[in-house]
Design brief:
The chain is built from 25 helices and 2 strands. With 610 residues, the chain is mostly helical. It has a two-stranded parallel sheet. The N terminus is likely disordered.
Length: 610
């Protein structure tokens, strides 16, 4: 496992003669794709050199260009991706070991994803470039400075003035275009694409203004003759670019007329992310290696929810409430501890889980991991978005604070009762988020670039499933707590994907958590507020249950079948780092792999309840 990474010799031209001709020293950098290495030993999974170089090469290549609108930068990056694809094609995939093949497939998927994203960016930038036809004339100044070419100051000064005049002339033309567009927006409603274009054009204009200012400052005072000739023309050029940028700024006096929508009520009026739609959901699921359409996953969530409801009825009967699940749930919620005592409950539950895991040899827990977690109390502000605790090396506990409203205090105690917490403390600490953070910071760290929430949250949720199957929740109250959270994760699939398909309003998402799962209303609002907040990954909420199901099915394939012990299975997963669960399966089982492998694991059909 200490052999050098397999990087075979390349026979491809260095990005092609055309690219190199366009990027001689006076016009920008040249890029050489990774050199290959031929080794006689078995190919390993050590892709570290390759994965370290790829993002660094991309970043270094891009920063050498004064403007992101330069065609040679855009074309160069297109060739950059082509060169890296050729690197992969030159590798002997069949001679790699299984971990090496998994790394190959992961990197290819990452490369394809980056290339697709850049293709969209390139199309956008080329559109913007038509609004700034003077880009090359500005950047030529910088390239000439880099090459240390001597200027003729007396000739350069009028050229700068002429360039400033042409920018002013172009500005008057563009002003009419922008004004006409915004006038239509005031009449018809905001055009998001047009405003995005204007914003990019403004940023690119100011970028060019900085290029001119930095270019002049390089000479100012150090080249007295040049400084004397070009001070005024340079300032005029910079001013022209600043005025050009101002054309694209939104006019605060004439805000675009918003698109008329039905008036929102209640929770719908908060700031939520816009639904992304079916097509974008399909793209995101494919990127996460989940081979199901969103509508099918919603049906899966409903199927699992139905199982939870039937199990709840059994527990309600055990508690003496017959089929009255609501009454049984209410009884469990009342068994909360007084303010000030919740952190002790969390510590007790954490130690119980660790003792159980070690007694049954389920996973290796390094002593340092056992000693290094801590408990902290969550602020009232954070509890608006995280009404329950969050985990990692420190578990942040949600419980009443003196500054909270009285009703919120009561709901916090009820919703964080010890029996609900029994299902999630191990999710946040060990064997969940704390242990996974501890292990992934030490093993296969080169795979961090493939980080996926389906592994991170799926692993933690999987343990709730596995411990349920093993009878870890001994009392009916604890079993009700486990089922409450399992239902919550089912409903997350339904409401999060349903919202992004346009089938639910935020208020309906809240109502679903209250009416179906049994959440306290403020807690349900906090969950939806976090789930639909702008910037929250679209698939985050559905990843818990779906990732957990993937690990559960994999456990049945490899542990329940006797092919691996539970400890071996869990240790292999943790040391493999955060990769799509389908690729975890590929690495630790005998699934056939090819260099063009794509997602196809239909795990949901194989999921079984004990």
């Amino acid at each position: 496992m200490n052999a050098r990474p397999y990087l075979p010799p390349l026979t491809l031209p260095l990005l092609g003669a055309a690219l190199l001709q366009a990027q001689v020293s006076t016009n920008g950098p040249r890029y050489t794709p990774p050199e290959g290495h031929e080794i006689a030993t078995a190919h390993t999974n050590d892709f570290r050199d390759l994965l370290d170089r790829y993002p660094r090469d991309r970043e270094t290549f891009q920063r050498e260009f004064p403007s992101r609108l330069e065609e040679k930068r855009i074309a160069g990056l297109e060739k950059f991706f082509e060169a890296w694809h050729r690197v992969l094609l030159e590798m002997d995939f069949d001679k790699m070991n299984r971990s090496g093949q998994v790394d190959y497939i992961l990197f290819r998927h990452r490369l394809e994803r980056d290339q697709e994203q850049f293709a969209r960016e390139a199309a956008h930038l080329r559109t913007i470039a038509t609004l700034l036809p003077f880009v090359e004339e500005i950047t030529a100044l910088e390239y000439q400075r880099r090459s240390q070419d001597k200027h003729d100051p007396q000739k350069l000064a009028p050229e700068l003035e002429k360039l400033a005049g042409s920018i002013d002339e172009k500005r008057r033309e563009v002003e009419e275009i922008v004004a006409g567009s915004r006038e239509r927006q005031r009449e018809e409603g905001r055009d998001e694409m047009a405003e995005k274009n204007f914003k990019t054009a403004e940023e690119a204009s100011r970028e060019l203004q900085r290029v001119v200012e930095n270019w002049f400052n390089y000479y100012r005072g150090y080249d007295p003759l040049l400084t004397w000739w070009i001070t005024a023309p340079s300032k005029k050029l910079s001013t022209s670019l600043g005025a050009y940028a101002d054309v694209f700024k939104p006019d605060p006096k004439h805000k675009p007329k918003p698109i008329q929508k039905p008036k929102k009520k209640g929770f719908n009026g908060e700031n939520h992310a816009s639904p992304v739609g079916e097509e974008q959901l399909a793209t995101l699921l494919r990127q996460e290696m989940i081979p199901y359409p969103a509508a099918e996953l919603i049906r899966l969530g409903k199927r699992e929810l139905a199982w939870c409801v039937e199990e709840q009825k059994k527990v309600a009967a055990e508690l003496g409430f017959g089929n009255d699940v609501s009454a049984a749930l209410e009884q469990v919620k009342k068994k909360h501890v007084p303010p000030g005592e919740q952190s002790a409950v969390i510590r007790r539950l954490a130690l119980e889980a660790i003792a159980y895991l070690e007694k049954h040899s389920l996973v290796t827990i390094p002593q340092l991991a056992k000693d290094s977690w801590r408990v902290n109390m969550m602020s009232p502000g954070r509890q608006r978005f995280n009404p329950f605790f969050t985990g990692g090396s420190t578990i942040s506990v949600s419980y009443p604070h003196q500054d909270m409203e009285h009703a919120d205090k009561l709901m916090s105690m009820r919703g964080n009762n010890p029996h609900f917490s029994a299902a999630t403390v191990h999710h946040e600490l060990i064997p969940g988020h704390h242990l996974q953070d501890f292990m992934t910071s030490r093993y296969n760290t080169h795979r961090r670039m493939y980080n996926t929430v389906f592994w991170t949250e799926g692993w933690a949720l999987y343990w709730e499933m596995l411990l349920w199957d093993r009878g870890f929740p001994r009392t009916p109250e604890d079993r009700m707590g486990f089922l409450f959270w399992r239902m919550h994760r089912c409903v997350r699939i339904i409401f999060s994907l349903g919202y992004h398909l346009g089938e639910f309003t935020p208020q309906e998402c809240v109502d679903l958590l209250v009416d179906v799962v049994g959440h306290e209303r403020s807690h349900a609002e906090g969950e939806v507020r976090r789930s639909l907040a702008p910037g929250t990954p679209v698939l985050y909420q559905c990843a818990y249950m779906l990732g957990g199901m993937q690990f559960h099915v994999l456990h049945r394939e490899l542990v329940a079948s006797g092919k691996m012990t539970a400890r071996e299975f869990h240790d292999r997963i943790l040391r493999g780092n955060r990769i799509p669960v389908e690729m975890v399966r590929a690495e630790i089982s005998d699934v056939p792999l090819t260099r063009d492998y794509t997602t196809h694991w239909r795990f949901a059909e194989q999921f079984r309840h004990k």
